[in-house]
Structures are given as structure tokens and as C-alpha cells.
Amino acid sequence: MSAVVVWDGDEAVLRPAAPRVVIETERCKGCGLCIAVCPPAVLGLGALNTKGYAAAVLLDNERCTSCTACALICPDAAITVFRPRRHGPRQEVRA
User: Fold this and answer.
1) Which of 39, 53, 57, 90 could cross-link 46 (Cys pair, CB 3.0–4.6 Å)?
2) Contacts of residue 73, Cβ cutoff 8 Å, sequence gap at least 6
3) How many distinct structural domains can be found in the chain?
4) Is residue 31 domain-resident?
């Protein structure tokens, strides 16, 4: 499992990486549009939900680029994408 650096005040702390894509499996109808538009091909179809649809699943969190293509195309709004923070805490710049 991958890890990320999280800033706690002025200190960098290493924590396990949270999923970048969260899929609400009960809302997903398994249409496959998200799978078709995923540039790194990290989405697939998984187990059946309670409605009988094979819901989309994130297959590889580490290769996910958080591009949001899957969330934008999802007709059921079943996908949420989280982008990791790219910068540490803001620092004062003096001229």
C-alpha cells in the first residue's frame, strides 16, 4: 500500500494513502463509461450490488492520476475523486 506525506502543523507525517476514487456501489449501474474513459485503465467491474448490477471498482489506487474523467462521465454521480495535496504548508515570503 502506498503512503503520503501529510503536513501536521510544521511537521511532515507519513500516513497510508486514502483511495483517490470512491465509488458508491449502490448507485452504480455498471454501464462501464468510467472504465472506457479512464486514461491509466485503473477501473473495472466488480461484484454485484443489491440491485444486481456489477459495480465499478478501483483496481489500482497507486496508478490513479485523479484526473476526474470517471466522475465527470458517470451518469449516476456515483464517483467521487479526491486529489492529493501537492504542497506543504504555506510559508511567508519576505522580499
Assistant:
1) 57
2) 33, 34, 37
3) 1
4) yes
13, with CB counted inside 10 A (0-12, 13-18, 19+), is exposed
Burial (CB < 10 A; 0-12, 13-18, 19+), residue 50, is: exposed
At 16-64, the pLDDT tens digits run 566 689 999 999 999 999 999 999 999 999 999 999 999 999 999 889 9
Question: pTM of the prediction?
Answer: 0.71
Grid coordinates representing 61? 489506487
Cα separation, 22 vs 37, in Å, equals 16
Query: CB of 28 within 8 A of CB of 44?
Result: no
The answer as to whether 92 is a domain residue is no
